[in-house]
Specification:
The complex is a heterodimer of chains A (319) and B (199).
Chain A (H helix, E strand, L loop, with lengths): L1 H4 E2 L2 H21 L1 H25 L3 E2 L1 H11 L7 H16 L12 H12 L1 H5 L23 H6 L6 H6 L11 H13 L5 H20 L7 H6 L3 H7 L11 H21 L6 H18 L9 H14 L1
Parallel strand pairs in A: 1-2
Helix pairs in contact in A: 2-3, 2-4, 2-10, 3-4, 3-5, 4-5, 4-6, 5-6, 6-15, 10-13, 11-13, 11-14, 14-15
Chain B lengths: L7 H11 L10 H6 L4 H30 L8 H23 L1 H7 L10 H13 L3 H29 L12 H15 L10
Helix pairs in contact in B: 1-7, 3-4, 3-6, 3-7, 4-5, 4-6, 7-8
Classes of the chains: A mainly alpha (319), B mainly alpha (199).
């Protein structure tokens, strides 16, 4: 049954495995809402891809599982489930399948879906944050209480507890909170060569440099280590920046791409009305990723082996 | 006349990124879609638009403030602005014809059509409405031109990939998918909204 619907993709499967601890953490933090979102999003996402791929006579790629998982983890927990369905259908249908399916998309589908519903349904999004912990019962009782995310707290001048940031017991998107788990899962991906370390490092460097610069210039009072540990920079650096399909292939282009993501995330977070910028950072960098690949000089012969490997990844996965 | 109090650098930055003439104001769409098929000609058109924008922006400011306003002819501004733009484009066309025959042929009808490129008239009118002073005018028109240029080469690089894809649904191939791409690009640029003000 499974084999008739899905084509096997080893790389994508590793990403899904690495996300399991994050799902368990989210389950602990927010309880049944995570299950509800997961079930509905996976069903809608796979169905959408199935409808498109059946027309082409192909099987559903396992990459859609990654898209669904990342999309789920990037949502605020108390979001109405129908909104997340709109998001995942937009993500798979418009951002991915209309571009020709797996390996052809220009923009990251999960981010596209998230931005779409974030802008279309701004009000429900803003009030969908929950207090974390205790399998979603929290102190809220039956009715949900909206909680301020660390980013919102810092804009109001209170500093969150740094341990709660690292372990992840703080309000935020379902999967973005636990720095510790993300780092372990991310290192697994880097060491199995599923994720390109250059993209992770450059994203973190870009964000760190800009937030440190703004802090010392007196523009914001958020210290750089708080800026790095809150919001979704960490999650994005390991999971969204490293998407092998939307990232550029050349080494030098990858450095610029990562720095763009990191710095735009901080810029949007500090200077605009949006209080979290990573999704915009990734999306703007996606816009320029093909251009960066065109502009950067071709790598020299000796170094050509490595970028060729990374660019071969989606193909190998598709086979 | 009181010019808005905006730093020149932030005006420059804003006109390129945060209020990009294409992706935030949606001006100059027709040639944006038509000429973005390959990187080289879109690069040429971007350069042409930038030059025309900067020169006409400055020229129209001078005409507005030294001819139209003193003689109370402000109601003629649309015609006069378009005339200045048309003259500029004519000169540029001759230059490109001389310098690069190949670019001249690829741009084809779209070179004279820069005349009616809404981005250029739009910038001239924005300059009037927002009451920029001369230096701000030059910075703003140059920035808008560079923003247009950046957007069209980014789109051309993306289309370079998408046009090769055979699996795009038949009804969407070509400009259909380009429209979706532009929509997604604009979605990305929404992130910058409210960052810097231009007026």
């Amino acid at each position: 049954m499974y084999d008739t619907i899905f084509q096997k993709q080893k790389v994508m499967r590793r990403v899904v495995y690495s996300l399991i601890p994050l799902f368990l953490m989210a389950l602990y933090l927010y309880g049944w809402r995570v299950l509800a979102h997961t079930a509905v999003i996976f069903a809608a996402g796979i169905l959408t891809e199935y409808i498109f791929e059946r027309k082409r006579g192909k099987k559903v790629s396992e990459a859609v599982l990654v898209t669904c998982a990342l999309f789920t983890l990037s949502l605020p927990p108390a979001l109405p489930v129908w909104i997340s369905v709109v998001g995942i259908v937009f993500a798979v249908a418009v951002v991915k399948e209309m571009y020709g399916g797996f390996g052809r998309n220009i923009f990251n589908p999960a981010i596209g879906g998230r931005l779409f519903i974030w802008i279309a349904f701004a009000a429900p999004f803003a009030s969908a944050w929950m207090e974390a912990g205790g399998f979603g019962t929290g102190e809220a009782g039956i009715d949900l209480v909206t909680a301020a995310t660390p980013l919102e707290q810092m804009q109001n001048g209170t500093l969150p507890d740094i341990w709660s940031l690292i372990i992840g017991t703080r309000a935020g998107s379902m999967g973005e909170s636990s720095i510790l788990l993300i780092t372990i899962a991310g290192l697994y991906l880097v060491f199995t060569k599923t994720a390109q370390w250059r993209l992770v490092v450059s994203t973190i460097l870009g964000a760190l440099a800009l937030s440190a610069g703004l802090y010392w210039a007196g523009v914001t009072d958020v210290a750089p280590h708080y800026a790095m540990l809150s919001g979704s920079i960490w999650f994005g650096a390991f999971y969204f920046a490293t998407d092998p399909i939307t990232a550029p292939n050349k080494k030098s282009a990858q450095w610029i791409y990562g720095i763009l993501i990191g710095s735009i995330s901080i810029l949007v977070r500090v200077f605009t009305d949006f209080n979290a910028g990573l999704s915009f950072g990734v999306f703007v960098a996606n816009v320029f990723s093909s251009l960066l690949d065109e502009l950067m000089p071709a790598p020299r012969k000796k170094k050509a082996a490595k970028p060729a490997k990374t660019s071969a990844k989606p193909k190998e996965a598709a086979a | 006349m009181n010019a808005p109090d905006i730093g020149l650098f932030s005006l420059f930055f804003a006109s390129i990124f945060t209020s990009n003439i294409l992706l935030a104001n949606f001006l100059g769409m027709c040639s944006f879609i038509a000429i973005s098929k390959d990187l080289k000609s879109s690069n040429g058109l971007g350069l042409a638009v930038t030059v025309v924008l900067t020169v006409t922006g400055a020229a129209n400011w001078l005409i507005l403030h030294y001819i139209l306003i003193p003689y109370d002819l402000i109601y003629l501004r649309f015609i006069i602005f378009i005339l200045v733009i048309a003259a500029m484009v004519q000169i540029l066309e001759m230059v490109i014809d001389r310098v690069s025959q190949k670019l001249y042929i690829t741009l084809g009808i779209f070179l004279p059509l820069i005349t009616v490129n809404c981005a250029i008239l739009g910038v001239s009118l924005f300059i009037e409405i927002r009451e920029y002073n001369f230096v701000q005018t030059v910075i703003y028109s140059l920035g808008s031109g560079l923003g247009w240029w950046l957007a069209i080469v980014a789109l051309a690089a993306i289309r370079n990939k998408t046009e090769k894809t055979k699996t795009v649904p038949a009804g969407l191939q070509g400009s259909g998918l380009t429209m979706i791409t532009i929509g997604l690009m604009a979605l990305a640029f929404i992130g910058f909204s409210g960052m810097l003000s231009v007026q």
